[in-house]
Amino acid sequence: MHVSFISLGKPVLHGYFRSSCSWRVRIAFALKGVEYDQVPINLIRDGGQQVQYRFAGFLSVQYVQYLNHYKPGPRLLPADPKKRAQVRMISDLIASGIQPLQNLYVIQKVGAEKMQWSHHFIDRGFQALEPILKQTAGKYCVGDEISMADICLVPQVYNAERFKVDVGQYPTIKRLNQALLEIEAFKVSHPSCQPDTPDDLRA
Predict the structure, then answer these.
(1) How far is CA 69 from the centre of its chain?
(2) CATH topology of domain 12-73+194-201
(3) What is the pLDDT of residues 118-163, one digit of tens each?
(4) Predicted confidence (pLDDT) per residue in 24-41, tens digit
(5) Rounded to two decimals, what is the model's pTM?
(6) Strands 11-15 and 37-40
(7) Is 56 helix (H, G, I), strand (E, B) or coil?
(8) Do residues 137 and 144 lie in contact, with contact meaning Cβ atoms separated by under 8 Å?
């Protein structure tokens, strides 16, 4: 995932339809009402088209924080210091502690055991995440306002379902994900309706 800026025009998101990083940024753009262009980068074709590019820039969580600071619209980080710390903790747990272990490059190295590997580490991560969310959640991950934590949660639950994790074991995670998927910003950013979504995965 890479976001570039052309002068003062629209940002350009170089991403992949099913990339968690790309999806986080798409959700943030939708919540903030930011218009942007997309350049699909296939992470599989020809060994991964991303290797043809030498991107330097933000990681998705850092970009969401940048966007929150510079763009008007709903806050993605709460004003309250305690809640803001909780949002960052949950976001880091997902984006740094769970998702990288089933990243495409990692599971390609794992090989034939990739399904079991990914299932194990997502399950283990959700075992840590569920009790935290029980303490912090209201309507959404932290209280009753959508935040960066929610932006991180939904793509991770999508991955969990891809790798056959029983999300029903985690009632708070399941409830939050279902509520968030009813929100327009999460619908329009979903991997099933992106420019590079394969026909057999399109909604």
Answers:
(1) 19
(2) Glutaredoxin (3.40.30)
(3) 999 999 999 999 999 999 999 999 999 999 999 999 999 999 999 9
(4) 999 999 999 999 998 888
(5) 0.88
(6) parallel
(7) coil
(8) no
